[in-house]
Specification:
Blueprint: E1 2-6, E2 9-15, H1 22-29, E3 34-44, E4 52-66, E5 71-77, E6 89-93, H2 96-104, E7 105-113, E8 123-131, H3 138-144, E9 153-159, H4 162-165
Antiparallel strand pairs: 1-2, 2-7, 3-4, 3-8, 4-5, 5-6, 8-9
């Protein structure tokens, strides 16, 4: 994971390493949509109080297999998927590996305007990636509660270099 300043904003690049457990892959191949959530919090350190959240960004990904055309479809959106897909970027893939590589790789994700950050403050970026089981079909949610196969997550914290904030 890395944060870089590009023009007047901080952007995130990240690669998440995971493999789909066989049970999750089997559900996907049977047409169950998988939902992934990546989120970043920019926290300003304060010695006199709890750290302050300065910025928060989320990216939601929906991966589904379409058996009739034998393709995987990935939708990416800045907000949670409701009954419709709303505004989202869609991509189709022939192979599961290609689709998962796209889920695992986050590039040039705009997190916060640099103007929102004080150049003399100390900041950390807390990154969280997980398989969102709360968006699975209700009957399946009951069966996955407490099962390690369905617990897919990654976390990382990174101190933001103050030199990045000054130009």
């Amino acid at each position: 994971m890395r944060l870089e300043r590009v023009e007047d904003a901080l952007y995130l690049w990240a690669t998440i390493g995971f493999d789909l457990p066989p049970l999750v892959e089997d559900a996907l191949l049977k047409g169950v949509a998988l939902f992934f959530v990546a989120q970043v919090e920019i926290m300003r350190e304060r010695w006199y109080w709890a750290d302050e959240r300065v910025a928060f960004a989320q990216r939601h990904m929906r991966l589904v297999y379409q058996p009739l055309i034998r393709r995987f479809r990935l939708n990416v959106s800045p907000s949670a998927f409701s009954t419709g897909l709303g505004v989202s970027l869609s991509q189709n893939f022939e192979e599961l590996g290609e689709a998962l590589e796209s889920v695992k790789r986050i590039a040039r994700w705009r997190i916060v305007d640099v103007a929102q950050l004080d150049p003399i403050g100390r900041y950390t970026a807390d990154f969280d990636f997980r398989l969102d089981t709360s968006q699975l079909p209700r009957p399946l949610q009951m069966g996955v509660a407490g099962r390690a196969d369905w617990s897919l997550s990654a976390e990382r914290s990174l101190a933001i270099d103050p030199a990045v904030l000054v130009r």
